[in-house]
Amino acid sequence: MQNSIALVVATRNKGKTSEIRELLKDFPIEIKNLDDFGPIPQVEEDGDTFDENAYKKASFTARILGYPALADDSGLLVDALDGAPGVYSARYAGENATDEERYAKILQEIKGKTNRKAAFECVISIAVPTGPALTYEARCEGVIAEQPSGSNGFGYDPIFYYPELKKTFAELTQEEKNSVSHRGKAFREVQEEFDKILIWIRQNMPVQEKFICSED
Ligand SMILES: O=c1nc[nH]c2c1ncn2[C@H]1C[C@H](O)[C@@H](COP(=O)(O)OP(=O)(O)OP(=O)(O)O)O1
Ligand SMILES: [Mg+2]
């Protein structure tokens, strides 16, 4: 391959990885997963916002591996729960809970409430090892279903009902979900800027990488 740089997708979530790989399929440099490397310490996602956590994951990974890295921090915000679980979405029923336990907790907590509006939010951070980063974000509105339905996707998808398509996210194919989801929307902007992002990465990579890249 002519380019020796690659972009590492810095997530340990298999569902996200699959969606992101599809959304990045036309990105003009090699895409690597964390699995392509040896064991890497886990970053603590202790920021107060999706922005902070996305940047922490992307910049930490970039620094440790010496490659540009892309991270996604996302979560579910339920109106009747004052925006919870929000940035705590991944830990909402305890560190080792399953997806089922997490969404069961939400269904339990909003039982009887008339306002079932909710939204998914997603922040994407693309960072280089020296620290600078680009940020993209998006939101997708829906309602919390009365009961879980569907087996596609991951996380809270079985309880996130998307009125426009009259289905939960777990009843959509990955392609359908990507066409409307918070992650899909954020990546639409990334896609529009593929060329710009590539130039930015090249300009911001440490000197020896830049040197290796310019083979002409
Ligand atoms: O499209 C989605 N469909 C369903 N659930 C979703 C979605 N997007 C985020 N979510 C939930 C999953 C997790 O409970 C939390 C994200 O937490 P977040 O820290 O960003 O991801 P994670 O810990 O699963 O993987 P990682 O940090 O390695 O990327 O929100
Ligand atoms: Mg996480």
UniProtKB/TrEMBL annotation:
Its cofactor is Mg(2+). PANTHER family: INOSINE TRIPHOSPHATE PYROPHOSPHATASE, INOSINE TRIPHOSPHATE PYROPHOSPHATASE/HAM1 PROTEIN. The keyword Hydrolase applies. Keywords: Hydrolase, Magnesium, Metal-binding, Nucleotide metabolism, Nucleotide-binding. Belongs to the HAM1 NTPase family. InterPro entries: dITP/XTP_pyrophosphatase, ITPase-like_fam, RdgB/HAM1. The active site is at D73. This is dITP/XTP pyrophosphatase. Binds 1 Mg(2+) ion per subunit. It catalyses: ITP + H2O = IMP + diphosphate + H(+); XTP + H2O = XMP + diphosphate + H(+); dITP + H2O = dIMP + diphosphate + H(+). It is an enzyme of class 3 (hydrolase). Substrate binds at T11, R12, N13, K14, G15, K16, S74, F154, G155, Y156, D157, K177, H182, R183. Pyrophosphatase that catalyzes the hydrolysis of nucleoside triphosphates to their monophosphate derivatives, with a high preference for the non-canonical purine nucleotides XTP (xanthosine triphosphate), dITP (deoxyinosine triphosphate) and ITP. Seems to function as a house-cleaning enzyme that removes non-canonical purine nucleotides from the nucleotide pool, thus preventing their incorporation into DNA/RNA and avoiding chromosomal lesions.
